Amino acid sequence: MTDSTVRMDAIGIRTTDLAAALAFYRLLGLAFPDGAEGLPHVEAALPGGIRLMFDPDDSGEDGGRGRIALAFHCGDAAGVDATYAALTKAGHHGECEPWDAVWGQRYAVVHDPDGNQVDLFA
Fold first, then answer.
1. Which of 20, 56, 60, 70 has the lowest CB atom count within 10 Å?
2. pTM metric for this prediction
3. Residue 49: which CATH number?
């Protein structure tokens, strides 16, 4: 995990009211496309290259997960696998082992000590 290719890339927020969340963050100066309230996934670019991502969640269930997820870019598929292995070997909960996602990324999910989702991708 000391590989310099692993970098913080995004913060994801599950929201029960996407329109209200986007209105709030627009007041703080973030830009979203017109009509974003109707999309299944919305992102805003932040200074320094990090993305703030919103996903609507009207399930009413948290499934034991936090509402915020952090996403780390791991350089390449091998980086995802190695980072996942290092975190789970250290005793952290592996939610989803590395897989090749249909959207073209190598992806894995672990939980931090507080149960927040941490996505690993390349």
1. 60
2. 0.72
3. 3.10.180.10
Question: What is the chain written as a DSSP string?
Answer: ---TT-EEEEEEEEES-HHHHHHHHHHTT----TTGGGSS-EEEE-GGG-EEEEEE--SS--TT--SEEEEEE-SSHHHHHHHHHHHHHTT--EEEEEEE-TTS-EEEEEE-TTS-EEEEE-
Q: In terms of residue numbers, what domain contains 25?
A: 7-56+67-121
What span, in angstroms and rounded, lies between the C-alpha atoms of 48 and 53? 15
User: Are the CB atoms for 63 and 14 separated by under 8 Å?
Assistant: no
110 vs 122: CA distance, rounded Å = 15
Q: What total of structural domains would you count in the chain?
A: 1
